[in-house]
Design a protein that fits this description.
The protein is an alpha+beta fold. It has two helices and five strands. Strand 2 (10-15) and strand 3 form a beta hairpin. This is TMED5 protein.
Length: 167
C-alpha cells in the first residue's frame, strides 16, 4: 500500500524461485496477493521508475501461513499425556482451542496493522489537503485585499473634482 507520494501509484513484481513472474501490478495504490509457495527464494520489487521526481512511502506485510506449525509439535504433546481416554480427549480439545485462539489473535494483529497503514495513508492525504486549502485561502485573501484597494481608489477618483479652475 502506498502511504505517501504523488498520485499514490507504484508498480509491483513478484518472482518465483524459478524466475517466473507470479504477480505483476502496474500503477496500483494497494493490493493483496496470495501465492502458493515452494521452497526457494522469492523476489519482490516495488518499482517507481515511471515517477522519478516524486518519492513514495510504502507499507507492505509478508504473511506466511502455517509457518512453524508442524504436526510434529502437536504430536509432542501427546507423548506427555498419560491417563484415560477421557483425559486425552480433553487435552486435545484444549489444544484445539489454544490453536484457534492463536490463529484468531494472529489474524487480529494483521488486521490492526493493515488498519494502521490505511490510517497513515489517510492522514497523509488529509495533511496534504490541509496545506493546499491554506495556500489557496491565502491566495484568495490576497486577491480580495488587492480588489478592495482598487475599488476604494476607483470610488475616490469618481468623487474628485476634475474641473480646473482658472484664476
Amino acid at each position: 500500500q502506498v502511504l505517501d507520494g504523488a498520485f499514490f501509484y507504484v508498480d509491483f513484481h513478484l518472482l518465483s524461485p524459478k524466475g517466473e513472474t507470479l504477480v505483476f501490478d502496474e500503477r496500483k495504490s494497494d493490493g493483496v496477493h496470495t501465492v502458493e509457495t515452494e521452497d526457494g527464494d522469492y523476489m519482490f520489487c516495488f518499482d517507481n521508475t515511471f515517477s522519478t521526481i516524486s518519492e513514495k512511502v510504502i507499507f507492505f506485510e509478508l504473511i506466511l501461513d502455517n509457518m512453524g506449525e508442524d504436526e510434529q509439535d502437536q504430536e509432542d504433546w501427546k507423548k506427555y499425556v498419560t491417563g484415560t481416554d477421557l483425559l486425552d480427549m480433553k487435552l486435545e480439545d484444549i489444544l484445539e482451542s489454544i490453536n484457534s485462539v492463536k490463529a484468531r489473535l494472529s489474524k487480529s494483529v494483521q488486521i490492526q496493522t493493515l488498519l494502521r497503514a490505511f490510517e497513515a495513508r489517510d492522514r497523509n492525504i488529509q495533511e496534504s489537503n490541509f496545506d493546499r486549502v491554506n495556500f489557496w485561502s491565502m491566495v484568495n485573501l490576497g486577491v480580495m485585499v488587492v480588489v478592495s484597494a482598487v475599488q476604494v481608489y476607483m470610488l475616490k477618483s469618481l468623487f474628485e473634482d476634475k474641473r480646473k479652475s482658472r484664476t
